[in-house]
Every structure is written in C-alpha cells, then in structure tokens.
Amino acid sequence: xxxxxxxxxxxxxxxxxxxxxxxxxxxxxxxxxxxxxxxxxxxxxxxxxxxxxxxxxxxxxxxxxxxxxxxxxxxxxxxxxxxxxxxxxxxxxxxxxxxxxxxxxxxxxxxxxxxxxxxxxxxxxxx
Length: 127
Known about the structure:
The chain has three helices and six strands, in the order βαββαβββα. It has helices at about 15-20, 50-60, 85-125, and strands spanning about 1-5, 25-35, 40-50, 65, 70, 75. It starts with a strand and ends with a helix. The relative contact order is 0.16.
C-alpha cells in the first residue's frame, strides 16, 4: 500500500520516517520529496508498506501524531493521474522553440515562394 505523509518536519530524514512506519509492519520504500532548487525537504513524502492491512494500521495509528513538533497527516496515497497538464506545459515550452523554428521556416518559405515565382516565369518561357 502506498501512503502519503504530509506536514512533516523539514529536518526529518527518510530513515526516521521508515522507523516510524516499521512499528506497523514491513516497509518496502520511503521517499521524501525534495525541492530541486533548495535541496530541502518539501515536508511531505510517501511510504510503501508491504501489505495493505499493515498500511491501514499505520494510517490509523500515525495520522495526527506529533512528530518533531508537527502534527503529521497520513492517508492512503491516490493513484497518479496522467500528467497531461504538466506534459502540456512542457510541450508548450517546447512549442515555443518550435515556433522559433517556424519563424526560420517562414523565412525559407518566403524564399521558396520567390523560387516558385521564378519557376512560373520560367514556365512562361516554355510557352
């Protein structure tokens, strides 16, 4: 069972979080979410428990518990939704690059258009 853990103290380490949950059963993995820019914890993470019953016991036992001066929020993690929004956003940024490429392409199309006009004139010579 995948469990969301929020309102964590920023100084809490993955080993500390694992130790909290091991009291309820086998922990498969622990992942604290880290801010890329600061390298600090964002104050939430995920714990993967080996079985659902132990996971539910951990949720019931730890939700609202005070850890490091903070009352933590513990719940079953929701399934990830397809990240169309995030992908769209990144796609939009990439699209900006493509628009830049389109601008260069526009110049080529303009040049191509001139060539076509010359071809048409050349076609006139055949008549």
